[in-house]
Amino acid sequence: MPLVEINFDGLVGPSHNYAGLSLGNLASASNAGEVSYPRAAALQGLAKMRHNIGLGLTQGLFAPLPRPNPAFLGALGLHAIDESDPAQRRLRAAAWSASSMWTANAATVSPAPDTVDGRCHLTAANLVTMPHRSQEWPDTLRQLRVAFANAQAFVVHDAVPPCFGDEGAANHMRMCASHEAPGLEIFVYGTTGGAFPARQHEQASRAIARRHGLAPERCLFVEQSTEAIAAGAFHNDVVAVANERVLFTHEQAFADPDGTYAAIRERLPEVEIVIVPASTVSLADAIRSYLFNAQLLTLPSGEMALVIPLEAWETPLVRGWLEAHMASNGPIRRVLPVDVRQSMANGGGPACLRLRVVADPATVDPRFLLDEAKIAQVEAVVAAHWPEQIDPVDLGRESLARSVIAARTALLEMLQLPELA
Ligand code: SUG
After folding, report:
1. Is the dihedral of CA 110, 417, 47, 315 positive or negative?
2. In the predicted model, is pLDDT for residue 30 greater than 70?
3. Residue nearest to ligand 1 atom 1, measured at CA
4. What is the pLDDT of residues 39-83, one digit of tens each?
5. pLDDT-based confidence at residue 360 (cuts at 50, 70, 90)
6. Which of 54, 36, 47, 51 shows the shortest CA–CA distance to 11?
7. Rounded to an integer, what distance in angstroms lies between the CA atom of residue 370 and that of residue 372?
């Protein structure tokens, strides 16, 4: 079986809520305090997975991580919460966060054709910049080690040391003539984002490239523009996405756009760079609509499709640009809007919800791979067990905690993944 791109989507967890925990993520901040709909959110994500399977693509699934996480609170000495202290309430909300749904932040992946030992390397992201995300990596690592246990095909690395923030594949793009060919791996880091934190540190990216055994001449380390981070692009995948020989980017994504494009062209002469100018779609509109937080996918026909959030299609300037691009015979031949509004309201579009792994599906633990029948089984578990809604003021309530834990247990039983219990 040849190497193919497998998209592992994170199932939206039963504790999905809007607590406004992510500084620099405008959607998270503006929806803080809203009531969330975990069941609808998970079903939206499953509908996207079904949609992509319908395109003839290979689809995988990661289970939500255990929440609420008492170990996180215990480590902070918070065995009981002082309800009058907003900082303590915020830390409790962190322990309830379903943020592992955004698996683009689970790990950085270097497929086998790029690495010195011919195996696919994955490094779990430490996510240290945001407290609610910093608790993810040990459980993520555990899951990656089960899914990619085949040691002939995969190497799964610990997170890089917490002195350097790493947010995984959201700040990493792989470009290549085809998925099976050696790739150019582009690591995008930030230095400053004005009022907002730069989450990806250059030294974390460089450490990953070394640990994965990448050839230095096939790596690029590119700085994200300060303006982009300051405008709300807390990850590079909010303003750029790449697939095979196509880079689709906003004009203001990188600190040195021309230098970046030239360096890519030098290493991958067949590259096609599709640049959306700020005069057509401003950085603010790009971030509000999440045009670039899209899945740029090669269909079995060889054509490329862009799976965008509905919000992008509903933004007239963005839709106008996409229609003009397709009419001009640009490399994106199809635009496919999907409804992931519940995730979008926390700043997670179609691209955030998936981790791309180029591998032979036969080498992956089959419990993490999906077909239509298994999606229907997951949907049934979600319909039966996921809370219909969560008001952030209910976080901490014992009965809610019990139902969230029971929901995940039911899922793991259905998926036959006792190792993750
Ligand atoms: O890290 N939101 C996530 C969204 C991650 C999107 N991923 C990518 N761009 N790849 C984050 O900011 C919101 C949680 C809250 O506010 O409760 C949150 O964590």
Report:
1. negative
2. yes
3. 22
4. 999 999 999 999 999 999 999 999 999 999 999 999 999 999 999
5. very high
6. 47
7. 7
Size of the chain in residues? 421
Largest CA distance in the chain: 60
Kindly give the distance from the C-alpha atom of residue 25 to the centroid of ligand 1, in angstroms, as a whole number.
7
pLDDT given at position 10? 98
How far is Cα 254 from Cα 341, in angstroms, rounded to an integer?
27
Report the distance separating Cα 237 and Cα 208, nearest Å.
18
Residues 6+ apart with CB under 8 A from 272: 245, 246, 247, 331
pLDDT at 156: 98
What confidence tens digit (pLDDT) does each residue in 147-185 have? 999 999 999 999 999 999 999 999 999 999 999 999 999
State the alpha helices, DSSP H only, in 63-176.
Answer: 70-75, 86-96, 131-134, 137-147
Nearest CA to 139 among 103, 89, 88? 103
Atom nearest to 170 CA in ligand 1 = 10
For residue 1, the model assigns a pLDDT of 62
- DSSP at 256: S
CA distance 364 to 147: 6
Which of 140, 352, 391 to probe ligand 1 with, by most ligand atoms within 8 A of CB? 352
pLDDT tens-digit series, residues 317-346: 999 999 999 999 999 999 999 999 999 999
Name the phi and psi angles at 212, rounded to 5. Answer: -80, -5
CB-ligand 1 contact for 104 (6 Å cutoff) = yes
Orientation of helix 398-415 relative to helix 372-385, angle to 10°: 160
Cβ pair 161, 194 in contact under 8 A: no
pTM over 0.85: yes
For ligand 1, say whether the CB of 19 is within 6 Å of any of its atoms.
Answer: yes
233 pLDDT more than 80: yes
Residue 287, SS3 per DSSP: helix
Nearest to 248 by CA among 273, 226, 268: 273
State the Cα–Cα distance between residues 342 and 247, nearest whole angstrom: 27
d(CA 156, CA 30): 36
Domain 4-420 has CATH 3.80.10.10: no
Ligand 1 atom at shortest distance from the alpha carbon of 130: 1
The span from the CA of 6 to the CA of 177, in Å, is 17
Separation between Cα atoms, residue 22 and residue 170, nearest integer Å: 15
CA 70 / ligand 1 centre spacing (Å):
21
Structure tokens at 281: 């779609």
